[in-house]
Every structure is written in C-alpha cells, then in structure tokens.
Amino acid sequence: MIIEPKTRGFICLTAHPTGCEQNVINQIEYVKSKGEINGAKKVLVIGASTGFGLASRITSAFGSGASTIGVFLEKGPSAGRPASPGWYNSAAFEKQATEAGLYAKSINGDAFSNEIKQQTIDMIKEDLGQVDLVIYSLASPVRTNPNTGKRHKSVLKPIGDVFSNKTVDFHTGNVTEVTIQPANEDDIANTVEVMGGEDWEMWIDAMKEAGVLADGCQTFAYSYIGPKLTEPVYRKGTIGAAKDDLEATSFKIAEKLKDINGNAVVSVNKALVTQASSAIPVIPLYISLLYKTMKEKGIHEGCIEQIQRLYADRIYGEDMQLDEKGRIRIDDWEMREDVQAEVDKLWAIATTENLSEIGDLKGYSDDFFNLFGFKVEGVDYDADVNEVVEIPSIS
Ligand code: NAI
Ligand code: NA
C-alpha cells in the first residue's frame, strides 16, 4: 500500500516501514562512525522500540557489539493497517543486528506486568545467562500495578497553582496562551505510580532474585529537568514528582546492587521530540526555540547523539561527572547559560507571526514526522510498500 501520515492532534495514526527502517539504519551508521565503545556485552533495554530506549539498544549493539533483548509495547500490522513505528523500528533493528552477527530478540507486551518480567527473565536465562546492563526507558500514560491490579493514569499538570504560558500547535505554528489547572493529590499519586521508580525497582528485584544480573551489572533510567520556563508544568508539576521518585529510587536500587558490585544511576537527558514529549503542553514551543538556538551554536543533538555521548563519555568514560544529586547530566549543553539566555530572549517575543523565523518550527515538525518514518531523506513515499512486516524473533 501507499502509506501517508494521518495525524490527529499530537499523534500520528500511521507509520512508514521503509522510513522507520531508514531511521534505524541512520542511527546505526552514526554510532559506527563514532567508533567502538568498551561497554556491556549483554544488555536488556526496557522501552527499546523508540526514542532514547531505541537509541540505547542501537548504541549497545553497534557501539559495543552487545547482545540485546528489547522489551516494548507496540501494535503489530494487519493487512491495510500499518503497525506502530516502534514495531517497524524493532523489525529493522533485529534485521540489521542479525546481519551484523549480533544476537537480538524482542518481547512485545506490558513491561509493568509480572508476566512480561518473567518472560524476559526466562529469555535471559535461556539465551544469555545474565545481563550486565539494564536500561529502563519506559514512557507511558498508564500503568496497571501488578500488586494491586489497579490501573493508574498519569497527568501533566502543575502542582499548587494554575499555570498559564505560551504554547504552540506545531502543525499550524499557532502560538496561543494555555492555562492548566493544578493537580489534586490523586493526580500526583497516579503520575508517580506510572512514571515513578517503583516499576524499575520491581524489574531489578525480580531479576536479581532470579540470578540474571551479572556481577558489576549497572542499570540506568532517564530523567529530565529543563529550564525555569517549563518548571511549573514539568519539573515542579506531576511529571516532576514522578521524576523525583525515579531519582530517589536509583539510590535504593544502587544499595541493593552493592553486593554484586552493581550500580543504579539516573541520566538527565536533553529535551527532544518524541511521542512522549509532544503531548506535554508548552514543551513543543520550548523545544522549537531550543533547537533553533542549539543548531545555530552547532551543539544540537538527537536521541542517538545524546545516548552515544552518554555511553562514550560518561557511562564508559573516565568519569560519570555526577551532579550534586548523583545524576549524570547529559543535558549539559541544553542547560548551558548562553543557550538558556537565548531561549529566554526568544520566548519573550515569540508569536504566531515570528515563530517560523525565530524558532525551529520546521525542525520540530520534521522530527515529529520522522518519528513515524515520514519525511525521511532518501525514502520513496510514492512506492508501494508491504505494511505487514514481522519482527523476526516475535513472528
Ligand atoms: P518514547 O515514547 O519514545 O519511548 C517509550 C518506550 O516505552 C517505547 O519503547 C514504548 O514501546 C515503551 N512502552 C510504553 N509503555 C509500555 C508498556 N506498558 N510496556 C512495555 N513498553 C512500553 O519515550 P522517550 O521520550 O524515549 O522516553 C523514555 C524516557 O526518557 C522517559 O523516562 C522520559 O521521561 C525520558 N526523557 C525524555 C525526554 C524527552 O524530551 N523526550 C527528555 C529526558 C528524559
Ligand atoms: Na524509549
């Protein structure tokens, strides 16, 4: 079939297999071009199909020659209905990894459940014995807690006060004022349930108990801080409360891994266009101004550049350069004073009329479509493609 983007608000309902494959190939080429990283050889990535998790899987495999198991929740294709992008990405990744002689298997299911954890542990036992790196990169709006059976929904709201600021509809470039009512106690608790650290700890507990964590095993999860501008709706909002919890959990996990010489650390990453971040009000406007500024300064990075640098310079570099709260700061270039001063200046004057000039609206929009395999250079979108693509280890 001919597959075209079909957007509804900040989601795209279709994905292009060839475009997704090309994205994966481009990321692999990037990692290879940066040279070998002396990293872990047996790696589990939870949330491995898109965004930072996919970049982590690619960096482990093609930077360090690692065997990888990827866990994710994606929708497979059926005749006439394309799969979700993470499905096509994972199919392409497995194909590339296998061609390169690398072990790669995937598990498609709810990572929050006990069943998927057990299935993953069984696969590790059978195929790899143990893993020496676990990347936790889930982003989800909902979680069913397997201990209580209760389903929680996260929200993106400020805590305490009503928040009003500018935002942009990145499809139209319309800059408007958005007002968000503050969260109640339930909203906060639910968001922490979904995006906090409990599930990460449950994974590590289950894996340690099963003996599938190798001596010296490290685990990393990803967080975000961002500027003052987005603080009320991000870091000091409900999602920030969840990130506080995630970060606090890293110390609990690190303590539990001491006896196997392991470690657990959070890496604070840069703001990027992903399916998760497009849904957060105000953030798209911030990102479009940030992209413009960082590209002008020659320091713009996407997921793969971020994760390649995270591995090469921090995790497997001389020094993780932890901040005063024990976190890796690979958001260092985003948070540079000159970058933030410029974004502040642009933010103050941003309007519908000037945004395409002072902001990188096109960069935002292109990145958004790229997530779904559209607008990828070198792909012939007029060509007939087979939407039914299998993930080799799943079919
Ligand atoms: P993403 O939406 O691209 O990736 C989410 C991944 O989680 C996908 O592989 C998806 O299949 C998987 N997933 C979701 N629900 C699942 C479930 N129930 N079971 C199994 N897999 C499931 O998100 P992104 O942006 O890569 O986020 C990953 C982490 O990075 C999150 O913790 C996020 O907060 C963090 N982060 C994101 C930033 C951004 O600007 N996008 C900045 C800094 C940190
Ligand atoms: Na991810």
UniProtKB/TrEMBL annotation:
Residues 2-78 form the Trans-2-enoyl-CoA reductase-like NAD(P)H binding domain. GO terms for biological process: fatty acid biosynthetic process. The record marks E74 as: Plays an important role in discriminating NADH against NADPH. Substrate binds at Y224. Keywords: Fatty acid biosynthesis, Fatty acid metabolism, Lipid biosynthesis, Lipid metabolism, NAD, Oxidoreductase. Involved in the final reduction of the elongation cycle of fatty acid synthesis (FAS II). Catalyzes the reduction of a carbon-carbon double bond in an enoyl moiety that is covalently linked to an acyl carrier protein (ACP). This is Enoyl-[acyl-carrier-protein] reductase [NADH]. The lineage of its organism: Bacteria, Pseudomonadati, Bacteroidota, Cytophagia, Cytophagales. The gene is fabV.
